[in-house]
User: Which sequence fits this backbone?
């Protein structure tokens, strides 16, 4: 985005597209960029595009659920990208745009799993804080076993839900 100024992230629902886009926005914001997102996902007008184009940059617009936008608005957003304005579209539809990346569910889960195992000391502390059933004592589930069990997830959010003991928190709140 700092070079191309326009990019599209696509993939299936639950694949982590929005999270990846907002992480990119967070990194840009740490480097002095303004970050703008739609008030309602997938809803924008030509007036909204003009407002974005009038902002003092550098600023990035993160457009989640861009597949729901009117094609005219989508094209106007793409064309609004310039030296001071970047646009990151997030969509469930594949794009033929050169700045397009697709998040594959299996690849995303494998990447998260590898990260957890490669950063075991740090991640295991976080998991244990979220679910005290995971730990190093004999009475606890081993972190590595929880990561392996989480690896059966179909989507990345399910991996993280399982890893952090989400089913326990849900059942406790019911």
Assistant:
């Amino acid at each position: 985005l700092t070079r191309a100024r326009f990019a599209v992230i696509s993939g299936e629902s639950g694949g982590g597209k929005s999270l990846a886009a907002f992480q990119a926005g967070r990194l840009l914001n740490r480097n002095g960029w303004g970050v703008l997102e739609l008030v309602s996902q997938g809803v924008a007008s030509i007036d909204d595009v003009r407002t974005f184009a009038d902002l003092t940059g550098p600023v990035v617009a993160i457009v989640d659920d861009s597949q729901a936008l009117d094609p005219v608005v989508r094209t106007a957003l793409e064309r609004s990208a310039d030296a001071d304005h970047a646009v990151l579209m997030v969509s469930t539809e594949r794009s033929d745009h050169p700045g397009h990346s697709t998040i594959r569910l299996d690849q995303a889960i494998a990447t998260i799993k590898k990260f957890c195992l490669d950063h075991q000391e740090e991640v295991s502390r976080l998991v244990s804080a979220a679910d005290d059933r995971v730990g190093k004592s004999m009475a606890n589930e081993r972190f590595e076993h929880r990561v392996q069990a989480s690896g059966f997830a179909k989507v990345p959010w399910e991996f993280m839900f399982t890893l952090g003991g989400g089913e326990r928190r849900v059942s406790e709140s019911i």
Observations:
- The helical segments are 17-30, 46-54, 71-80, 105-118, 120-130, 143-150, 156-163, 166-173.
